[in-house]
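Module 6 notes. Inverse folding takes a fixed backbone as the condition and produces residue identities as the prediction. Think of it as a translation problem where the source language is geometry and the target language is the twenty amino acids. Below is one complete input and output pair. Work through it position by position during the lab.
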């Protein structure tokens, strides 16, 4: 695990990884997370994309890890989140930006037919979830519709006016889908997640802690800050 000094450093470190990746492999598929953790990383990427000789997104395809079962135009949808933090601020066409929907098989086929995910950036939920793979998710699961746990609904209620407004279902890449990525970066911010992170990375693997599946990945890097 790489411990960084602060959130700014975490954001810069992961943005640098994405930049180096795109510079080396301009034609690439990248899986992207939402939540509060990656906001700083997106801010850094936007900065890198808009200067003279900025980062080129022309041949990049983005695949979001997950989305609520919600109107995509809702201000708290992950479509809206990505527009706000990245897609509307860089030179990328909507046709390059992919999100899971109820046609889960189509999403899987799309990723496979386009050559698979080369780089996957992940966040971590306080209950050990990755994307919206809640505790109990099969390690081989694929993109599917899931019910959110009470814990996740409460955690994510900070983005909504009322806890009752948080969607109870989501569509998520599965753990098997994520594990097929060629390289995975897990970014974690906050001391309140340190314990679950340590358990996920070092204790025996269990479906009760979905992120523990990542122990089996041979190209995983973990970046943490308090
Ligand atoms: C949500 C997302 C996850 C994300 C997690 C952590 O539930 N579906 O992909 O990793 O929240 O969010 P935060 O970074 O806000 O703690």
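Target side of the pair, the amino acids:
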């Amino acid at each position: 695990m790489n411990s960084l000094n602060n959130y700014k450093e975490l954001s810069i470190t992961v943005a640098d990884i994405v930049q180096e990746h795109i510079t080396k492999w301009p034609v690439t598929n990248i899986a992207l997370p939402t939540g509060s953790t990656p906001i700083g990383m997106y801010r850094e990427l936007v900065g890198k994309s808009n200067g003279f000789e900025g980062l080129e997104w022309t041949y990049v395809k983005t695949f979001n890890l997950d989305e609520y079962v919600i109107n995509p135009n809702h201000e708290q949808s992950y479509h809206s989140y990505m527009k706000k933090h990245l897609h509307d601020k860089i030179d990328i066409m909507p046709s390059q930006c992919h999100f899971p929907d109820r046609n889960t098989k189509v999403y899987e086929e799309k990723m496979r037919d386009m050559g698979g995910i080369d780089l996957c950036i992940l966040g971590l939920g306080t209950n050990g979830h990755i994307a919206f793979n809640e505790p109990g998710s099969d390690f081989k699961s694929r993109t599917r519709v899931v019910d959110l746990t009470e814990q996740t609904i409460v955690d994510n209620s900070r983005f909504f006016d009322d806890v009752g407004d948080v969607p109870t279902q989501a569509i998520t890449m599965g753990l098997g889908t994520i594990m097929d990525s060629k390289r995975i970066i897990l970014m974690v911010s906050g001391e309140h997640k340190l314990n679950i992170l340590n358990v996920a990375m070092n204790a025996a693997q269990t479906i009760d802690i979905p992120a523990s599946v990542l122990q089996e990945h041979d190209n995983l890097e973990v970046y943490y800050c308090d």
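Reference fact for the lab report: The chain is about 30% helix and 20% strand.
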